[in-house]
């Protein structure tokens, strides 16, 4: 793999690129764990509302079971070269309790409204506490762009 020519981005540029990806990408890998059953990972569609990630899955899923037992989760966008990792706490919202603006935005983004399905669904909101972003080895130093729920650079004006 060729890694030469990678230019280290300043933190503000990493933040801008990360926010753009969160706003436009479709899939995120969700990693949860249960004290008795161990780790679990799967991809889900997601919506970034500017402060948190929203996902939706079956009310009987392993993800929902794990989050209810252990709310700490990790999320990752699916590009292994342009890495974005989020760590935070998840909260479950049964479909009848999800905030309307989040459910409407999710349905608009994907053309699918889980509230209209026959089975029960749960919306999972993850508010990040830590965000890491890097492209290749030159960006490993300084990869943390959010710590303790605070971005390390001011948000771009268009956010």
What's the count of strands?
Answer: 9
CATH topology: Pnp Oxidase, Chain A
CATH architecture: Roll
What Rg is obtained from the alpha carbons, in whole angstroms? 16 Å
CATH superfamily: Electron Transport, Fmn-binding Protein, Chain A
Protein name: Pyridoxamine 5'-phosphate oxidase family protein
Pfam families: PNPOx_N
Domain Pyridoxamine 5'-phosphate oxidase N-terminal: 21-134
Organism: Streptomyces macrolidinus
What layout of secondary structure does this protein have?
Elements: H1 11-24, E1 27-34, E2 38-45, E3 47-48, E4 53-58, H2 62-69, E5 72-76, E6 82-94, H3 100-110, E7 121-135, E8 144-147, E9 150-151
Task: Describe what is shown at a glance.
By secondary structure, the chain is an alpha+beta fold. The chain has 3 helices and 9 strands; from the N terminus they run αββββαββαβββ.
Q: Can you offer a commentary on this structure?
A:
The protein has 159 residues and is α+β, with helices and mostly antiparallel strands. It has one domain (11-151): Roll (Pnp Oxidase, Chain A), CATH 2.30.110. The protein has three helices and nine strands; from the N terminus they run αββββαββαβββ. The protein has helices at residues 11-24, 62-69, 100-110; strands spanning 27-34, 38-45, 47-48, 53-58, 72-76, 82-94, 121-135, 144-147, 150-151. The termini are far apart.
Key phrases:
Pnp Oxidase, Chain A, 9-stranded antiparallel beta sheet, 9 strands, oxidoreductase
